[in-house]
Amino acid sequence: MLNEIDKDLTQILMQADKKCHQYRDYPWSPTLRDAHLVHQYWTLQLSKIQKELSYEEAYEKICLKLKNVDLQIKPQETVNSKQWQA
Length: 86
Description:
Elements: H1 2-21, H2 30-51, H3 56-65, H4 79-85
């Protein structure tokens, strides 16, 4: 049941995000855009671990936009620490 709620909420938020993009008047700087995408990536990774869901399509879209960003985890790091760093 919780997985269904999470899945529904994710869909709702993604649809709302698409609608909000239409009304943004100010472009983001490349640095801010990348920081947002990195945070989004690690938030999805954490959700994947906690809720055992797959977001492969979302990962692919983010990785295509983040060509020069290293998203690898070092042995001493955790997904949670990467999310907080982003």
